[in-house]
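Task: fold both queries, return tokens.
Query 1:
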Amino acid sequence: MALWLIVIIVAYFFYSLSSLGDKLVLSHAQKPKVYLLYVGMLSLLVLLFIPFTGFALPSLGGLFWIMCTSIVFMVGLYALYSATERFEVSRVIPLIGALQPIMVLGLSWVFFRELIAPHHLAAFVILFLASIVISFEKNPHVTKSLLKISVLAAFLAALNFVVSKMVFLREPFLQGVIWVGLFNFGFSLLLFFDSRVRKEIFVHKSHFKKKTLFLVVGTQAAGGLAGLLQNFSISLAPASSLSLLNALRGVQYVFLFILSLIFSVLLPKILKEEISKKAVIQKLVAILMIVGGLVILVA
């Protein structure tokens, strides 16, 4: 089994933890811009990686793609958080999950003139369909507003895959991660110029409740580790396999489904999910499809 495949599966486990935390944080009336500020500030933790790499200024080409990656990442997160705040997660995530793999496939060709390897095409199709099966609800009620913001979030997330690969083609992995994190921190500081953000932070003190802060830090720790592992996988995988990396997101939904079940049974006061027998069967079918896709990949 290729190392990038193992790494991305572990990354999607931590993304499932992060997604669960995002849901809980945003349910506590956190505004997307305020939450994005927290995320950007925590990006400064990338400085901890400096002792493990020969840290230096990036090349001009590397600097350009680092800036692009940071901008795409931050704007993409804002689009995702805004969609999660305005609409139900069960409507937003399926749309993004359905659109993103196809967008990565197209963008990979635009940037690298490479398409998915022929022998991986069957695995891509199965994993792509599995992501749709596991995440879609019976009546998604897709509105025009929901579709617009979901398409934007999906496109930016897909573009982030591609521009991140451009960074790692030009810079050592940890150096690229550090510089992207520093730019994320810098761009997040621009949010202080928004009077509404300052009001939420300095006037509405509820955003600094200990429980909320611990939840934010824990969520972003899981998300940060997931992002690090995803970027490592992107740096390892050939450009033609980027769409496969993205199509494997169905693994994240499997982990999220299992975690939601555990929380519903053991901690129903924190998170209670109503899961019917039909939903369980739907998830199991998707899990079998994902296993089938993985078998094809490692064969």
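Query 1 returned. Query 2:
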Amino acid sequence: MLGARPLPKGTAPVVFDPIEGARFWSGLAPAFVGDSVRRGVSFLSRDLDRVVATPGLDLVEDPCVDRAPGSRPFDGEGWPTSRRPLIENGVLRGFLYDSRSARRAGTASTGNALRGYASRPSPGAHAVHLGSGPHHPEQILRAAGRGLYVTHVMGFGLNLVTGDYSRGANGWWFENGEFAFPVHEITLSGNLRDLLRGVSMIGNDLIHRSSTSSPTFLVEGMIISGPGAGS
């Protein structure tokens, strides 16, 4: 980050690397929890079986990947786990339930009870990943042309009720598909509905590094602001 600078305010393509991409999807995962959906505190509450993301985007809850972080044969209540699409080809396909939240919603448990040693079960995601795409990361940068390559996000500016997203970020500005200079002290913002529909390219570099994993992916346009907004 030596010589890093802020950017003028504007809208630009944004590429998330696999690590920060995983943090993006990790922040989104609670929106799929059935109890939040039932209470209407998820921005996805009324979107089951509707298009919520760009075609070709698959977001999967899969605790059955061999030796992957977050994998387990059963949940905190002893129910078997299974691969479950959350978003399939851009369409919202389902939510995550434990037994208690499933009874309240009039459905069946999806095997997603989480618990600690001294806590009662509650619904949540075991292992979520964005499905791998066909593009090499360098190909994504070349196709985008110019924009921001995110290597670190910070803060907690994510409202899952409204879908509003605002996070501090560092990274690299790229031109003609090549890194030009490091960037810091900026804020990325938008609404998750727009961001999900704006994912236009997904990389082929998926590695299950943690319980939430992601390949590189490109969002066509995010609002960038920061100290350089007036320059």
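Both queries returned. Flag for query 2: The chain has a mean pLDDT of 93.
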